[in-house]
Amino acid sequence: MNEISREQMAELITNGTATPWTHPLGVEGDIPTAATLADTWYVVLDGHDHYTPAAADLAAVLTSAHCALAAADAAIGAQHVE
Question: pLDDT digits over 29-65, tens only?
């Protein structure tokens, strides 16, 4: 797939086929419009209204950040005591 409309991606996310990015990033704390689908990152670039496959360098950053954030979430969750 090269382009996916926002509506199509929303359906893929709703049915569990795609996974959206959910963590804020950067100084502004923005949540990028990105999702994984079949081990590929798709992003909405500035000025565009559809998802396209992320460039290899951006995909690598998203993958690394996703893994680091998941590990942090797990570590914090393991420390939770009631």
Answer: 888 899 999 999 999 998 999 999 999 999 999 999 8
d(Cα 42, Cα 10) in Å, to the nearest integer?
12
Strand ranges for the chain from DSSP E: 4-5, 18-20, 34-37, 40-43, 50-53
Whether the model pTM is above 0.85: no
Per 3-state DSSP, the chain is made up of helix, strand and coil in percentages (nearest 5) of: 40, 25, 40
| Residues 53 and 42 sit within 8 Å (Cβ to Cβ) | yes
Task: Please provide residue 75's backbone torsions phi and psi, each rounded to the nearest 5 degrees.
Answer: -65, -40
